[in-house]
Amino acid sequence: MEHMGNNVRATIEEVEGDVGELESRLDKLVKLCIGMIDAGKAYNTANKQFVNGVRELAASSNKDEVIESSLAKFAESLQEMINYHTILFDQAQRSIKTQLMAFVKEDLRKFKEAKKQFDKVSEEKEAALTKNAQAPRNKQHEVEEATNILTATRKCFRHIVLDYVLQINVLQSKRRSEILKSMLSFMYAHLTFFHQGYDLFSELQPLMKQLGGQLDQLVVDAAKEKRDMEQKHSTIQQKDFSNDDTKLEYNVDADNGIAMEGYLFKRASNAFKTWNRRWFSIQNNQLVYQKKFKDNPTVVVEDLRLCTVKHCEDIERRFCFEVVSPTKSCILQADSEKLRQAWIKAVQNSIATAFREQGEEAEKLDRKSSTSTGSLDSGGEPKEKSLKGESALQRVMAIGGNACCCDCGQPDPRWASINLGITLCIQCSGIHRSLGVHFSKVRSLTLDSWEPELLKLMCELGNGVINQIYEARREEVGVRKPTPTDPRQEIEAYIKAKYVDRHFVRRPSDEELRSKVVSLSKQEKRLSGCSEHLPPRPPPPTPKLRPASNASVRSADSGIQNSADGSREMLATTPSTNSLPEAEAAEVPPMAMPATLPPPSPCKEVLIFSEPKEYSPGLQLYWASCARSLPDMAEALAYGAEVNWVNVEDDKRTPLIMAVQGGSLVACEFLLQNAANVNQQDAQGRGPLHHATILGHTGQVCLFLKRGANQNASDIDAKTPLSMAVDAANADIVTLLRLAKMNEEMREAEGPYMQSGDETYQDIFQDFSHMASNDPEKLNRYQQYDPPQRP
Question: Arf-GAP domain location, by residue (predicted)?
Answer without folding.
Answer: 390-512
